[in-house]
Design a protein that fits this description.
Layout (H helix, E strand, L loop, with lengths): L6 H9 L14 H24 L4 H12 L1 H4 L4 H22 L6 E2 L3 H17 L2 H20 L5 E2 L1 H71 L1 H4 L5 H28 L17 H10 L4 E4 L7 H21 L5 E7 L3 E8 L17 H12 L3 E6 L5 E8 L15
Parallel strand pairs: 1-2, 3-4
Antiparallel strand pairs: 4-5, 5-7, 6-7
Enzyme class: transferase
GO molecular function, one term: kinase activity
Protein name: histidine kinase
Length: about 425
């Protein structure tokens, strides 16, 4: 048997017990407990009422009582099927009571135990079935109550009471079910929106990193173009084939620059403007520390004068920039240590801050854009390094990045690595 798209989950959901997906554990067994109590309490009561008060045969009364009460347990899983059995048994009981000539002072067509069980059944129906089914159930109940009431032998009629109570039960339970469905769908949408927000943030950070790396790579490509294009003038006596090779290199480099500019145009959005200043590196980190100190955060900076690739210097600068910005936002006035070291194989960036001496009464920023750590991780990942960022036991925060200097850029060429 094959299932249409979305049909199988719906069928499986309808096979589950009522309130099986409730958030609180104590709510989940509640339908079973109510159904069990109703069945145990109403079964002997119904037998006694039908046989002793209304004069039905004991065997017939027992059979009808079983049909009216035991299906309440089935109603926890399949309330509509239980309704078919109970509703048919209630109508059959009313018709049989007409033949035994009961006291006109007794309630008819639905004795009190039947009304109690039927209202409980309607609550189960309202928690599971859609509006159209609930309306049809209520119309069938009203038709039975009115139809049987037309042939009432002058006894106290209970058809109207049954119609009113069943309608109230169906309405209340249906409203509760729809409210739960709205909350569930809202939670699902919030989860999806949060995932999409995280994905969008990641893509924006990758585009921003790509734009910055473009400037670094473009600088080197420009140098290659100039050196290859002027080789014939700077180096005398070059063979013709060597001159052609240099000319080919210069032409290829110029085409590559043009492609990079077109790529950069794709990565830019309407709010992004071209950056004319050179991309910062290790030599600019000291200025970050000074600016942060002027903002009221004491910064102890250990500089590094090593000659590292521009991409590594740019990544180190951005990591320190974001880390210090987070200190200013979330731990104003906290003492901070910034160090950048290089041992020939690794460029290590370390930013550690203590707890804020005077914690702010309220967050300085409402909401979290999530760009900080996302951007740090992406820069480190592209360079094949590692990032360790997290809170410290004393209430501070630590950001440690290690960037290998001898590993090629870890940039996917097919664009599929977007997890």
């Amino acid at each position: 048997m094959t299932w249409a798209s979305g049909e199988r989950p719906q069928q499986e959901a309808r096979m589950r017990a009522l309130l099986a997906g409730a958030a609180h554990r104590w709510v989940r067994p509640l339908p079973w407990a109510v159904a069990f109590v109703l069945s145990v309490a109403l079964l002997p009561t119904t037998i006694h009422v039908l046989s002793a008060d209304y004069g039905l045969n004991g065997g017939v009364a027992s059979g009808l009582a079983v049909a009216q009460t035991v299906p309440l347990l089935l109603a926890v899983v399949r309330p509509l099927q239980a309704w078919y059995v109970i509703f048919g048994a209630d109508v059959a009981t009313a018709l049989l009571l007409l033949a035994v000539g009961f006291d006109e002072r007794l309630v008819w067509p639905f004795p009190p135990p039947q009304i109690i069980g039927y209202v409980g059944l309607c609550l189960a129906l309202g928690l599971r079935e859609p509006r159209r089914t609930l309306l049809l159930v209520w119309l069938a109940t009203a038709a039975a109550g009115v139809g049987l009431g037309l042939v009432a032998p002058g006894g106290t009629g209970s058809g109207t009471l049954m119609v009113i109570l069943s309608g109230v039960a169906l309405l209340l339970a249906g409203a509760l079910r729809e409210r739960y469905e709205v909350q569930r769908r809202l939670t699902e949408q919030e989860t999806i929106s949060e995932a999409e927000r995280g994905r969008r943030t990641l893509l924006e950070e990758r585009a921003r990193i790509a734009r910055e790396l473009h400037d670094v790579v473009a600088h080197h490509m420009s140098v290659i173009t100039v050196q290859a294009g002027t080789a014939a003038y700077r180096l005398h006596g070059l063979p013709p084939d060597v001159q052609e090779e240099f000319a080919s290199i210069a032409s290829t480099a110029r085409r590559s620059l043009g492609e990079m500019r077109r790529l950069l145009g794709v990565l830019r959005n309407e709010e992004t403007h071209g950056e004319l200043a050179p991309q910062p590196g290790l030599n600019r980190i000291g200025q970050l520390a000074e600016a942060t100190a002027r903002a009221g955060v004491p910064v102890e900076f250990t500089p590094c004068d090593a000659d590292v690739p521009e991409a590594h210097g740019l990544a180190a600068y951005r990591i320190v920039q974001e880390a210090l910005a987070n200190v200013v936002r979330h731990a104003p006035g906290a003492p901070t240590q910034v160090s950048v070291t290089e041992d020939g194989k690794l460029l290590t960036v370390l930013v550690v801050n203590g707890p804020s001496p005077v914690p702010p009464a309220a967050p300085l920023e409402v909401g979290d854009t999530g760009h900080g750590l996302v951007g740090m991780r992406e820069r480190v990942r592209i360079l094949g390094g590692t990032l360790d960022a997290g809170p410290l036991p004393d209430g501070g925060f630590r950001v440690a990045a290690q960037l290998p200097l001898d590993v090629p850029l870890n940039v996917p060429l097919d664009g599929r690595d977007l997890t």
